[in-house]
Write a structure and sequence with these properties.
The chain is an alpha/beta fold and about 230 residues long. Bound molecules: adenosine-5'-triphosphate. Adenosine-5'-triphosphate (ATP) binds next to α1.
Length: about 230
């Protein structure tokens, strides 16, 4: 589903590359944690998957296509097939919960009828039934993140990218969010999550890929956050 072949990424004016000869293969349906110190290259990795950046060398494949060679007009379609969730939720503050989720479908041209049936279904899936008419600032942080996940998942993307999704949440709320991501993963969606949350990684026992100075220093099935090398 996601394949990096000797991928390096150097930003202009930076001494050492943000990613350095990274080779990784993520199968469809896997759940992968990306860990490593701040600045180790996690966000760069995620941005390359979304083609927000292009590699300086090497190849990035998503769903079998080398995305560096994807025509510019096909990039929006690639991004639509990848849901994204961030630490800071990024909801539209002037829209209700339902409108936030519906918006993701409107921008890809879905009709009223489909939106009217899919949005409540998705809100129920994330545990927000009955809260569709609330505004984001009337929700707890955990609930806001559920809205963000509903919005990311509403068109059933093949990949869900989560960059520090529990970074602003307390441990109990974080566990709820991880259960939800696990449930989404079980529908067949590949989940790639960058995190500093050791407790969560140790609890979930999923594949762990650790980056250090842009290099993969560990790729462990059913891994833990910290590992004695
Ligand atoms: N747009 C950019 N321009 C220049 N340098 C960048 C850019 N984005 C990231 N970098 C550099 O690339 C390296 C990797 O950064 P990256 O954001 O990928 O790390 P990270 O592991 O996601 O960090 P964090 O955990 O703090 O989010 C860092 O040295 C960073 O300063």
């Amino acid at each position: 589903m996601i394949r990096f072949e000797k991928v390096s990424k150097a930003y202009p004016g930076q001494g050492s590359p943000a990613l350095d000869q990274v080779t990784v293969d993520v199968e469809k349906g896997e759940f992968v944690f990306l860990v490593g110190a701040s600045g180790s290259g996690k966000s760069t990795f995620l941005r390359l998957v979304l083609r927000e950046h292009r590699p300086s060398s090497g190849r990035v494949y998503v769903a079998g296509k080398e995305i560096n060679r994807l025509a510019a007009w096909k990039v929006p379609r690639l991004r639509r097939s990848i849901g994204t969730v961030f630490q800071d939720f990024r909801l539209l503050p002037n829209k209700t919960v339902s409108e936030n989720v519906a918006f993701a479908l409107q921008v890809i041209g879905k009709g009223h009828k489909e939106i009217a049936s899919v949005v409540p279904e998705t809100l129920e899936l994330v545990g927000l039934e009955g809260k569709g008419d609330r505004m984001p600032d009337e929700l707890s942080g955990g609930e806001q993140q559920r809205v963000a996940i509903a919005r990311a998942f509403v068109n059933r993307p093949m990949i869900l990218i989560a960059d520090e999704p529990t970074g602003n949440l307390d441990p109990t709320t974080s566990v709820g969010i991880m259960k939800l991501l696990d449930r989404i993963n079980r529908t067949g969606t590949t989940v790639l999550m960058a995190t500093h949350d050791a407790g969560i990684v140790d609890q979930m026992r999923k594949r762990v890929i650790e980056l250090e100075d842009g290099r993969v220093v560990r790729d462990q099935a059913q891994g833990v956050y910290g590992f004695q090398h």
